[in-house]
Design brief:
It contains six helices and two strands; from the N terminus they run ααββαααα. The protein is elongated and about 65 Å long. The protein has one domain.
């Protein structure tokens, strides 16, 4: 999945890693979301990366997997849920690794 998305456009993968891009503007020393009518072409392209990523991810899923992530608001959230579902949390991975090492050493 990473290779396919990266080969499509590096910006799409960065959108997954960092979360969706939200154009902002500084008003009274505070960053606020910029109205979509004021977005420049480059900002529009960056915003679109998350939608493209969500399309790629959902297009490659089975029905069961799709329903698991269909309510996600970003591609990053989708991939995080899929990763935990299929690989487990870091703690689960560590426990599995130690169990496999222990099993290997006993045989």
């Amino acid at each position: 999945m990473k290779i396919f998305i990266h080969s499509t456009d590096k910006g799409i993968w960065e959108s997954i890693q960092n979360g969706p891009f939200v154009p902002q503007v500084k008003k009274d020393d505070v960053l606020v979301d910029k109205p979509s009518s004021e977005w420049i072409k480059a900002e529009c392209k960056k915003v679109k990366f998350d939608w493209i990523a969500k399309n790629i991810i959902t297009s490659s899923l089975s029905c069961d997997e799709f329903f698991r992530v269909s309510q996600c608001s970003s591609a990053k959230e989708m991939l995080d849920i899929l990763e935990v579902t299929h690989e487990g949390t870091n703690d689960v991975k560590r426990v599995r690794k130690h169990a496999l090492i222990h099993e290997y050493e006993l045989s």
